[in-house]
Amino acid sequence: MKNLIIVESPTKVKTIKTFLGKDYAVVASKGHIRDLPKSSFGIKIEDGAFVPEYRTPRDHSAVVKEIKTLAKKAETIYIATDEDREGEAIGFHIATAIGKNPAELPRIVFHEITKTAIQHALDNPRTLDFSSINAQQTRRLLDRIVGYKLSPLLASKIQKGLSAGRVQSSTLKIVVDREKEIRAFKPQEFWSLDAIFDKNIESILTKFDGQKIEKMTISNGDRAKEIQKRLKSESFIVDSIDKKERKSSPSPAFMTSTLQQTASSSLGFSPKKTMMVAQTLYEGVKTHKGTQGVITYMRTDSLNVANEAIEAAREQILNSYGKEYLPEKPKYYKSKSKGAQEAHEAIRPTLIDFTPALAKGFLKPDELKLYSLIYNRFLASQMNSAKFESQSIIFKSESGEFKASGRKLLFDGFYRAYGVSDKDKLLPDLKLKQTIDLTKLDANQHFTEPPSRYSEASLIKKIESLGIGRPSTYAPTISTLVARTYITIEKKQLIPSENAFTVIDLLEKHFPEIVDSSFTSTMEETLDLVAEEKADWQKVLQDFYEPFMKKIADGKENIKSLKVVVPTGEDCPECGNPLVKRKGRFGEFISCSTFPKCKYTKNLGKSVKKELVTLSVNCPECGSPIVERISRRGKFYGCSAYPKCKFISNYEPIDEKCTECGGMMTRRELKTKIVKECIKCKHKVENEK
């Protein structure tokens, strides 16, 4: 053996070995082989200098010993970790751990694990990038300072086991802020008028008495019915027919964030699962050409694509779909992500002839789903735009105008790679100024909806747009928030816990920079400057550390304890430890005294019936009393016989009968008026306050 190649993953070892001869040995470091110690701060601060005290974890001692043994036999040792800051740092630690000078070992990089890419890397070695290593060290030490110094303060002031983090806490604030918006939301009433004209043409009212009708223009039922009555008595003509050709352009190949978002919406994959499956596809799977990586590196914020890959895609498009689908020139895309480093290519297939149809015989079901998504997206990105004919017809009367819209696909273009799922919505042929019958006109009541909770995919999109974190941190950040019970995921929605509100409120008041997305984003930009040798990493740490530690010291003295823990005298039904009563955002609740080790909780509000407010109105379905209840979404009214009777109302039932049908009336108080509405027929009565 003359050469030793050191990579990160054991799977890479198997794949790379198939490309090289007996002169090469390949070994995996299995990630970081040195890191800051888990049981202590691990940073010495001497004369303003920050010195990390790296250690080799016990579970990596055998790996280090194996690499040392192989290194002694090798003439040349190649560092072949991933080409990002984390990979540079891992390479640095590998060299240091085996007693080699990190500046002297050849460093090779590759964006895909194929024979051609590996050989090209061996032919073009470089040295480790110490600026990137310093940027990674800065990030690691900053995160250790925040986590190690702030987390104990939270534990002492709120609850044992809580933690904070530079990226983690600013991300959590986004989720908490959205939940606050939802809880503070007050629905507003609005009405629409929806018509059907002859030949079953659906349309909406866009203008009345010269006024443009927008979403909130018609705010009450009386006005809607007045407009409805007038329009029903009028005659309509076809006032205009408009047809325009429009193009729909393909999206670029995936980068990390868009892959996670699309895999979530199209495949139902969590970001964590997406990255696990993508890692397998990158490191190597069986193909018709042997074992190799079938996609490029999956942690990237770049939309760049190698010219040879573009040419291969263009040839595949020409052969598979024909000349009309191939643009005259290749398409190039540029990332719009804030702070994008663009160190890699976009995520694309490495073998363009390894089509999803062929891959079906080699890949596992989840691997095939994700690979097909990546393959089709890449191929589509180099195809011609789809062409549509948009159609619109305006129906006009003396007072109003209605608009009908349609669409016709003229050329499927890049949709050919995806398969077209949208059906044409064609409007019938009509003539200008012809009269047309209004066959149906409905006045429909609506209420504005609160903003939706974040999903994992939409949260990643948000933090990417704000420049919080980097592609490698998106999925782990969400996983950490779930693991620390700051958020739960229900029906793909992220719901913050009571502790999340308490922690964010405290941090906003005393450590605003930790939860400030602009501060976190600016710090990412500063790390970029360190990597570009435009900022000194030690000074970056000094500028953060000194004011931060002053706030920690002040917080220990002046932040009032928020702990409210009262023993209940009962034992936890899950682990047997004592239960305690705690105070949360919605009042008191019971939890296990060992939380977060045991996560048992019980909401007192739902189990203590005397806290329910009973109305002097009986249920219209079973006759039992109606009670006022509280849920995550706010106040509502329900039958006291629940779950036997499931009657509920969003508005307060009152002891008054509807004059139209005799049903129960409800009452809600708006800013300027009181609205009474029948549960059964929706008849409304509005009175000024």
Describe the protein:
The protein is α+β, with helices and mostly antiparallel strands. Helices cover 36% and strands 25% of the residues. It is built from 20 helices and 29 strands. The strands form eight sheets. Strands 6, 7, 8, 9, 12, 13, 14 and 15 form an eight-stranded antiparallel β-sheet that branches. It has a four-stranded antiparallel β-sheet with strand order 18-19-20-21. Strands 22-23-24-25 form a four-stranded antiparallel β-sheet, with no helix packed on it. Helix 1 links the parallel strand 1 (3-7) and strand 2. It is globular, with a radius of gyration of 32 Å. The N and C termini lie far apart (90 Å).
Task: Compose a concise summary of this entry.
It is built from 20 helices and 29 strands.
- Which structural class should the secondary elements be placed in? alpha+beta
Number of helices: 20
> What percent strand?
15-25%
Using the CA coordinates, give the radius of gyration.
32 Å
Look at the structure and give the mean pLDDT.
89
Basic shape: globular
Major sheet size, sense and barrel closure:
8 strands, antiparallel
**How far apart are the first and last residues' alpha carbons, in Å?**
90 Å
Oligomer state equals single chain
